[in-house]
Amino acid sequence: MDFEIRADRSPQGRKKLSREREAYSRLVQQGYSNTEACRIVGIDARTGRKWRNGRSGERNRKPVPPINLVVPASGPSRYLREDERIHIADRLREEATVRAIAAELNRSPSTVSREIRRNRTEGTRGQWHYRPHAAQARADARRPRPKRKIHQNAELRDAVQAMLDEKWSPEQICHALRQKFPDRPEMHVVHETVYQALYVQGRGQLRRELAGALRSGRARRRPQRQANCRQPRFITPMVMISERPAEAADRADPGHWEGDLIIGKNGKSAIGTLVERATRYVMLLHLPGDHGAEAVLGALTTTVQTLPAQLMRSLTWDQGSEMAQHGEFTLATDIPVYFCDPASPWQRGSNENTNGLLRQYFPKGTDLSVHDPGHLAAVADQLNRRPRKTLGWETPAERLHKLLTA
Predict the structure, then answer these.
(1) Which of 198, 326, 338, 363 is surrounded by the fewest CB atoms within 10 Å?
(2) Which of 109, 127, 142 is the last residue in one of the domains?
(3) For residue range 33-57, what is the model confidence (pLDDT) as tens digits?
(4) Pairing mode of beta strands 314-317, 256-263
């Protein structure tokens, strides 16, 4: 480099420092710290930070990208671009959350989190910094790695095929190879490599029929949708469980219910279940011929209107289609409905436990339409007179009576 330390230290403006800016950018891309790159080029550290972060030297000027920024190609990219890494660095200095940064970049939060974790620069005392150009250099260095590793190594391919024949998952195969060949890195793969070898069959890596050994049984990969890309479940917007009142979560007051359906043979019959969170008191809904949204709305509305006002505070349900008319239910009963997160049955733990108890009376694979309202009432009464350990061996009926008369 023909200018180790710049001799003329007087202000020269942005245009006269163009060579220094280009040299600084190359050094940062090679992994040099801001301080070291500035020392080599001969500029102040504050000037280097402005260049690195894409900011101009004048206060009244709009921030601009670094001089070496490559204009990204149009359309979405699988990999993070340099301008996206600069945006991440800027927002991290502003103490923005990972989810906020991901939303601004239209990326998954896990992508941003993984980028920060993999490409940050570790400092002293457990501190770290995220430098976008150094992160880009690390990513570029990792990119040209050997491809089709399983296809090129016959011994590795045979070992993976043998484990897949034994119904092992790709993750189990990954760890087994590392234990079996600890000193042979050419025999180590990550589980994603195995998935790629199975699903990209056109390149001839693993036998097509081995995909059937996977627990999913799929011969074609199915992409996962991001949470922010899901279509709305119902016409009336859902109110999620995170917005449920605190008194419902801590079971302090009666009147907060959890609901669900237990399904009969071939999905043709069902019984609705309601469990009061504070007392575990059970009520059952009679759904003899239909358990669609209209039928559930009618049975649910009729049942809860038999309750005293202090027991009509909220209802928590999963995102099943039977609650498509939850807005009409709230208008008819003045009871707000809160919905659990997808695939989160523990958020209705009392109801799930009760459904397990009800299977003693209504076994799986049986026709539930044969049970009349009288039988459902008798089953609910028997459960409500059963002592519960979680209630200090009181019965749900006793606890409910005690709370109502307190």
Answers:
(1) 363
(2) 142
(3) 788 888 888 888 888 887 777 654 4
(4) parallel
